[in-house]
Amino acid sequence: MTKSCPPNPEAVPQPTTWDARLARRLVTPLVGTPVTPNHLTTLRLAIGLAGAYYLSLGQFWLCTLGALLIALSNLVDHTDGELARISGQSSKIGHFYDLAADALVTVLLFLGIGFYVAVHHPSMFLPAQWLGGVAGVAVALIFFLRMRIESMVGKSGTKQASMAGFETEDVLYLLPVVTILNGMTPFLIAAAIGAPLFAVYVAIDYQRVSKQMKQRAQASHANKSNDFQAVR
């Protein structure tokens, strides 16, 4: 993790979402301490892996505990980025580590739900583990394509839609409620349908961005050639 001159935390613009604002408050006391954003990413990963594991056991209260851990992991996911912003700490490796942790936790989350549903509904039209796997692979593809888009056009190209301070991923905060209301089966089916559809949308967006970048590169090359000929 490389360090630059730490900015004044008060001068850094406030995040637009509620959970990121809470994360900013939680990590502000950590500025100037040995705690780094990578430490918080590791904490998020550990909490998320524990949550996915408890989800997969098929027992109601353990599943509820797993859902609570997943919701907590989703909140902690914002702390590393907020600490990096207000402390002036950043690195490409740290950013990649954050993305990899996000992808791993999300994939295992859906697999865990698949195993849970399989225990309670062993005779579904498709094995629940397969549905969890489909949702998980689709989410992994989404993370990969968003990472590629971000490498081409920056973070603005992968910014999630938000409304009233909430983002799409904030639906994970409702996972404990879904668990308590025995809604894991419809949640899994919706994810197995919705995640691949969204992956197709992101793939189309990736193709659009790639085409635009290629056209810009060609235009830049043509302009340079014209300038060279004009100098001659």
CATH superfamily: CDP-alcohol phosphotransferase transmembrane (TM) domain
Order of helices and strands: EHHHEHHEEHH
Based on the coordinates given, report the CATH architecture: Up-down Bundle
CATH domain class name = Mainly Alpha
Beta fraction? under 5%
Task: Compute the CA-based radius of gyration.
Answer: 21 Å
Number of alpha- plus pi-helical segments: 7
Which fold does the CATH topology refer to? Four Helix Bundle (Hemerythrin (Met), subunit A)
pLDDT averaged residue by residue: 84
Read across the widest sheet, the strand sequence of neighbours is 1-2
Estimated helix fraction: over 70%
- How many domains? The number is 1
How many individual β-strands? 4
Low-confidence stretches: none
The shape, in one word, is flat
What does the model show?
With 232 residues, this protein is mainly α. It has one domain (12-219): CDP-alcohol phosphotransferase transmembrane (TM) domain (Four Helix Bundle (Hemerythrin (Met), subunit A)), CATH 1.20.120.1760. It contains seven helices and four strands; from the N terminus they run E-H-H-H-E-H-H-E-E-H-H. It has helices at residues 18-27, 37-56, 60-87, 92-120, 128-153, 175-180, 184-231, and strands spanning 2-3, 89-90, 162-163, 166-167. The strands form two sheets. It has a two-stranded antiparallel sheet. The mean pLDDT is 84. GO terms for molecular function: phosphotransferase activity, for other substituted phosphate groups.
